[in-house]
Amino acid sequence: MTRMRRITAPPVILGNEPGSFPHSVLAERHPAIIRQVRDAFPYGPEAHRALDALAESCAEGVIEPLPDGAHDRHSWQDWGLDAWVGRSWFDVPWLWSESYFYRRLLDAVGYFGPGPWAGIDPFRPFKLAELDAAETDRELTALDSLADRPVGERARALLHGSLWGNRADLGFRLSDGEAEGRAAVPGLVADDSEALWTLPALATAGAGADTGAGGRTRAGAGSGAGTSDRADEYTKADAKADAGQDEKRDRGVSVGASSGTSLCLVADNAGRELIPDLLLAAHLLDHGQCDRVVLHVKPYPYYVSDATTADVVDALRKLTGAGGAAAEQGRRLWAAMADGVLTVRAHPFSAAPLPYARMPDDLRAEFAAAALTIVKGDLNYRRLVGDSRWDPTTPFADVTAYFPGPVVALRTLKSDVITGLDAATEAALAAAEGQRWRTGGTHALIQLRE
Ligand SMILES: O=P(O)(O)OC[C@H]1O[C@](O)(CO)[C@@H](O)[C@@H]1O
């Protein structure tokens, strides 16, 4: 068990420092998103006027209240709206400002109705284009070559697929045209994956993972260490696990379904991130000691590409229509939803402008009941640790001590917030890249708090 202590967070990040990454998101990314959404739909004059007003407000105006009768007015009041009304978008917590931007954008295009545009996702054309892209098909075909590999090797590959799938973030790519072409740096800045595979709920799913000394590895910047280099090695544990799964299947026993254990997967982006997330969930259900996965998605379109229930449906359709191993997994996941083994949850707090430390009791109870919560992506990481100027060496276990159960973060680094680095790793990153490693989307981490 990791030792942890409760600590006080440093100041939250605001967007009011010209030249900073948060400032550029508010000053450049948000206006660009408004333009792209406007161009993607044949909106009527009312939506155009509302988009104009939002663009003007973001550039020069102040935060305004929600319209009268907004269905979620009380929630936003609980989340601090009254305190921020009348303030510049740049002078309030950045996380709050960004979240409220997406809420207002949906208002502008009539998403919340009443009217014919109710429920029309303004980001759907971008999400679908990505789902239909040749890269997505290539990734699905690659699954075939994994099908007959040992269970531990598959587990590691799927974990890394889910982790690096987090680069498929449309908000990030829309405003940073070079992001996609930038090569990922192979070494993780923190890597607790081997400890992850020793958790009871996952142990058989990751059979063959090397626990090593203390069950954890740490990677230096760009070193490549910490990622598994044992991919071709079919270990005794792999063989034992595979034999066990085969034997269970021969007896007609549902593999992995015996423990009454659930996992929560807090999804991030749709499309090319959600597909590997679903494949990881399928693997854990099939080979782990968990018999239920709860997939937490956003209750409405958010941060451009964040996954909603509709995106889960699109991803499952993509899988089932793909052929080969992808289709097989798609059908199993489809059936898992019918059986209640895989459920989708769209809790209002999933799109709240607050850190998870302030989650409501019902959500806390859900995470508390899970054997493990997997938290995907940059934004969820910011919400998990708190969107503050942490010293990068602040232990991850300390900043997540409040979380009601074991939690693992899978994230590519796309914003300034970072915790849990060792001093040597931070120094190596800074020496090699200045501060670019924090926001470029080229580095990643796997951090576990048991
Ligand atoms: O899709 P992700 O990984 O949550 O990333 C969200 C992105 O949006 C941001 O919030 C900036 O808008 C950054 O945190 C990150 O670059």
From TrEMBL:
Residues 26-198, 258-424 form the Damage-control phosphatase ARMT1-like metal-binding domain. GO terms for biological process: DNA damage response. InterPro entries: ARMT-1-like_metal-bd_sf (IPR036075), ARMT1 (IPR039763), ARMT1-like_metal-bd (IPR002791). Keywords: Hydrolase, Manganese, Metal-binding. Pfam families: ARMT1-like_dom. Coiled coil: none annotated. Its cofactor is Mn(2+). GO terms for molecular function: metal ion binding; phosphatase activity. Residues 207-257 are annotated as: Disordered. It catalyses: beta-D-fructose 1-phosphate + H2O = D-fructose + phosphate; beta-D-fructose 6-phosphate = dihydroxyacetone + D-glyceraldehyde 3-phosphate. Residues 209-225 have a biased composition (Gly residues). Residues 229-252 have a biased composition (Basic and acidic residues). It comes from the Bacteria. Belongs to the damage-control phosphatase family. Sugar phosphate phosphatase III subfamily. This is Damage-control phosphatase ARMT1-like metal-binding domain-containing protein. It comes from Streptomyces humidus. The lineage of its organism: Bacteria, Bacillati, Actinomycetota, Actinomycetes, Kitasatosporales.
